Known about the structure:
The chain is an alpha+beta fold and 304 residues long. The chain has 2 domains: 8-167, no CATH class; 176-298, Transferase(Phosphotransferase), domain 1. The protein has 8 helices and 13 strands. The strands form 3 sheets. The protein has an 8-stranded antiparallel β-sheet, sandwiched between helices. A 3-stranded antiparallel β-sheet has the order 9-11-12, with no helix packed on it. The protein has a two-stranded antiparallel sheet with strand order 10-13. α7 packs antiparallel against α8.
Amino acid sequence: MTTGFSRESIRFPAFQHIWVPRSSRRAAGAGISMYSPCVAPAILAQRTLYVAVRLLGPKILPGRRESWSEPIEADVWQTFVDEWRDSFGPWDSAALYRRPQLGRTGCTLLLLRRGRGVGFVRISPDSARVAREFSVMKGVHAARPSTFAIARPVGCGTEAGWSWVGTESVPNYPLGALRRHSVRHAVAEEISAILDGFLARPADAPSNWRGSHGDFAPWNLRTELSGRVRVIDWEDAAFAPANVDLLYGDLTSHLTFGTPLPPLASVDSARWMAEVVRRRLAPEEGANSINSRLLELLATVPVA
């Protein structure tokens, strides 16, 4: 017999892909923290809202009051819920995040017990991708990185065409976005050094290619109040031309913060990045989407 949990939520009108639990002040604050803004005004607004809801409760939040339904088939969902209880222990509510990007699939849940995060799970239809991500996270976590932190991987599972991967919860308050190029460079270099040590190199990968995060953007490089960097979303980790992560980080930071563009990019890294972004580009995306703008921006960077 499976113990129930609360799905009573508030779906924000501005970003309707997040369902914030309204079971308690702490739970609502944790749900708000699932949003990952990068620019300063949005971060300030999120933190102000977080403080307000912790003081006054979820009743002050705008949005539609509703209970979310299972994001996947009911029988598969039930199997996963039971597996999560085995992996993370009891939990009584959850915040739900559905990916807004047209080219990305799946959803994410923050599992809560009395308003505190006990687990973070992502559901995907790609079992091979999930298994690879779990293996990568285990290897990176075991390396005990010094320039960044990674959530401890807890488990993964597969059922009827769906898979999940879970980690311990990240801090349940709004995190910032990494802006400093020097810190980003140090994190990227350590990621490559760690991945080079255990990631299986494909037979056709050139010897000068290195391990890369694969989505090295500000929304995946979060900063805690202490200044420590949290690197999330490892599903695209792979061998790639050297400095691909730095190129991707520089371009996404330029789009996000207006930081300087890189003066030069290697032919291999520019070609690799263009191929990755084109694969993520959904047919429905317009010229103002992040992927379309990245491709346009990449074409302006000199290559050699």
